[in-house]
Design brief:
The protein has 30 helices and 30 strands. With 879 residues, the protein is of the alpha/beta class. It has 5 domains: 173 residues, Rossmann fold (3-Layer(aba) Sandwich), CATH 3.40.50; 125 residues, Rossmann fold (3-Layer(aba) Sandwich), CATH 3.40.50.2300; 160 residues, 3-Layer(aba) Sandwich (D-Maltodextrin-Binding Protein, domain 2), CATH 3.40.190.10; 104 residues, Periplasmic binding protein-like II (D-Maltodextrin-Binding Protein, domain 2), CATH 3.40.190.10; 148 residues, no CATH class. The chain starts with 12 loop residues before the first strand and ends in a 7-residue tail after the last helix. This is Glutamate receptor, ionotropic, AMPA 1a.
Amino acid sequence: RWSLHLIPSFVPPTGGLFPTESHEYEVFRFALSHHQDIPKLVPQVDMVKLGNSFSMTYAFCSQFAKGVYAIIGVYDRKTVNMLMSFCGALHVCFVTPSFPIETSNQFVIQLRPELQDALVGVIEHYKWSKFVYMYSSDSGLTVLQKVLDTAAERNWLVTSVNVETMTEASFLKVFQDLDKRKEGQIIIDCELERLASILKKVVELGKNVKSYHYILANLGFLDIDLTEFKKGEANVTGFQLVNYDDTNISRIVQQWMDFDNKDPKVPKRGLKYTGALTYDGVKVMSTAFQNLRRQRIDISRRGNAGECLANPPAPWGQGIDIQRALQQVRIEGLTGHIQFNEKGRRTNYTVSVMELKPTGPKKVGYWNEDEKFVSTAAFTPGSNDTYGFHNRTYIVTTILESPYVMLKNNHEQLVGNDKYEGYCVELAAEIAKHVGYQYKLKIVSDGKYGARDPETKMWNGMVGELVYGKADVAVAPLTITLVREEVIDFSKPFMSLGISIMIKKPTKSKPGVFSFLDPLAYEIWMCIVFAYIGVSVVLFLVSRFSPYEWHAEDYEEAAEANGNQPSSSTGQVGQSTQTQPQQSQEQTNEFGIFNSLWFSLGAFMQQGCDISPRSLSGRIVGGVWWFFTLIIISSYTANLAAFLTVERMVSPIESAEDLAKQTEIAYGTLDAGSTKEFFRRSKIAVFEKMWSYMKSADPSVFVKTTDEGVMRVRKSKGKYAYLLESTMNEYIEQRKPCDTMKVGGNLDSKGYGVATPKGSMLRNPVNLAVLKLNEQGLLDKLKNKWWYDKGECGSGGGDSKVSPHLFCSRFHFCVLTLPLSPSQQSINDAMRCSTLTRMSGNGSGGENGRIVAHDFPKSVQTLPCMSHTAAIGLGASGM
C-alpha cells in the first residue's frame, strides 16, 4: 500500500516594521528579490514612526493578526521595551538590525554584534587612561556602561558627555578643556545620522587635526565621510563590520546600487552596514523557514490568527519552533559569520579595526571573542604610518605537515617558533629576514588548508584565518587556486607540483624455474626451436648429397672401433675370407641426423663440436647458423642482467585511467583541500568519473589529514590509493617503513604560494622575498635538505651483489635435468643388450647390428654417394 506525504504548500507571510523611506526598508525589498526562489517570502510591511509607541503597537498587532511567522524591523529606545513585551507574551520572533540590548527575551534575534568588548580592547591597545566619551541615548547605554565598569577596574579617568543635551557652547567648552589639559582622546558613540552631524561640528571647530585622536564606536567606519579629517591629518579609528573587498559582497553591493536607483540622474547610494544587517536578516529568516519545511513543521495559522491585546495573552503554539529554527541558523552573510547564542545574540563574529591613513581608511587589526584585539597594521614605504613592520609581531599561520612543519623531538622544552622545524619553518624565517618583520608561528586550529562550506559559504582552515583577520601571512603547502585567489592574495609559487597517486608498494616478484626464458618472448623461443630443427635438417640433407662429406674408413679399424668380433660361423668365415680384399675400405658420413642436431646445438651454445662440415654447402649452412646465434646470444645476454638481477615489482595501478576503470581498489583525497576541489570542478571525463565514485563511495574515501590517508594506504593491503600532491608523495616514499610509492605521472600542474589577506600591504614585500630566494637557489636547497638528504629509504639502488634466491631457479633446472643423462644411458644399454641377443640367435649381423654389404659389386663402391649405406641414410658414425 502506498501513501503520499505532502509538504504543506501554505507559505506564511513575513512581517516588516520600518520607518517610511528608510534605508533598511529599501534593502528589505532588495533582499526579498534575492530570496524569492525557495521559500517564497510574502512580505506584510507596515510603515511606523520611531519614537511613537502607539504607532508601533498598532503596527505590531496588525502584523500578528495577519498570521506572520516572524517580523523583521527596527526600534529605538522609546519603543524597544514595548516590542520586547509583546514578543515575549505572544511568542512572536522579532529579527532586528537595531542596536543590541540586554534582555532575557529569547524571541528577539539581534543581528548587530555587540561592540563594547571590541571597544575596550582598542582602548587598551592604545593605552588610553584619560579620554572623553561622547554618547547618544538613541542607541542605548550598554556600551557606555561596559566602558565605565572597565574604567573603575583599571583606574581610567572617563568624562562622559551626552551629545543630545549639548549646545554649541557646551560642545566648544569640551574641546577647550581638552586643549588646556593637552589631551585629545575622544570616543564618539552614536548612530550614523547623529554621528555625521557631530563630526561636522568637529570640523567647524577646527579640531580635525593631528593632535586629536577619535575612536568612532560604530560598525560602519567606511559609511562615514572622513574627507575633512584626512585633510586635517587627524587620527581616527573605528570599526567595520562589512568587508567590501570580498568579491561576493562587492557583487551584491553593485546589484543593490543598480536596484536602488533606476534613474541615472540621481546619485547612487551605497549599502550601509545597517542595510547589510537587514539583508542578512532576510537571509536568516529564509534559511530558518527552509529548515522548518525540511523538518515538515507546519507553522501556518489559518483562520483567525489571534488578538495581540487579549487578556490573558494567547501565545502562538509554533513560536517556540520558529525561535529555535532562527537561533540555529549558521550562515555566511554580508556581515560575516552569522550565528546566535541561546539568548538570540550574535556570537563567533569578527570586527575589523580601521584607521584613517593619508591614503584613506585602512584595516589595522581585528577583534573576535577568542583572540580579542589583534593588530595587523602593515608598513608602507614612504608613508607616515606609525605602525610599521618593526612595531608589531605578525601572526604566520601554518599547518603541521611533514616535512613542511614538524614539532621537534624536544619541543616540550622549547617555546615560540623554536618548537618547530621543517621546510616552511625555514622559509618563513627567510621571508621575515628579507622583509624585516617579527613573526609568531601559529598552527591552524582546525588542521585544514582552507575550503568554503557549500551551505554556510564560510571558509575554514588557513584561508579562513586570513579571510577573517585571524592571521597576517600563511606559509604552508597551500595550493594556489582560483577560488582562493578570489578572497586572499598569493605570492609567486615557491614550489611546483601536481596531483599524484600513492599506492602501497607491491611485493617484489620472485624468479620462477624457467625465469631464464624471460629476456626473450616465448614467441621468439619457439622460432629459435624451429630454426634449430630446420638448420639441422638442412645440414643433414646437404651432407648426405655432397660427396665431400663422405670419406673412407678402414674396415678393421672401424670394426675395432665398433667392438666387432670374428664370426663363429664356419660358413661365414669362409665367405668373409674370400671377400676381404674387396671390403678393405668403407665410405662413411659423419653428419647423420643426430650429429647434425648436436653440431647445431653446440654452435647455438657457443661451445663448438668435434665435427665440422667439409663441403662448401655444409659450411654455408654452418656459417649462417653461427651468425644467427651470435645475434641471438648477444641480445639474450644484454637482457639477461636486467631480468635476473632485478626483482621486478608488479603494480596493479599505473595511471588515473587504471583507477577509474576498476572498483576493486578504492581511492580518495583530503576532505578539505585543493585536490578534492580539482576533481569536483574538473570537466575531463576520467576525472569526472573518479569524482562520481569518490563522492558516492561507502565508506567514505575522504580523509581528514594526510597522515590518515597514508596510514590508510599502508593498512589497506593494496586496496586503497591516496591522491595527493606529488611533493608530499615523494617525501613519504622516502620515509620508513618505505612501503609506499608514487605511480604514474602528475594529473595536473600547480604551485604552492605564500598567502596574505586581500589587499594586505605585506603582499608585495613577501612576493619579492620569494622571488629573491628562488633566484638565490635557496628554495631548491631547502627541498633537497628536507626531502632527500634526510631520506630514510636510500636511492633504491641497494647492494650490487646478486641475491642467492635469484639463482635458485638455475640450480633447480640443473638438478632436474641432470638425471636425464643416466636415464638415457640405461635405456641405451637395454636396447643394445636386446639387439645383441637377437643377432646372436639368427647370425644375421655383427655385435653392434651393423649392416655389412659384402656382396655389392665394385662398380657400386666407386660412387660413395650411391653406396648402400648412403642409400638407406645410415652409417657407422651417423648413428
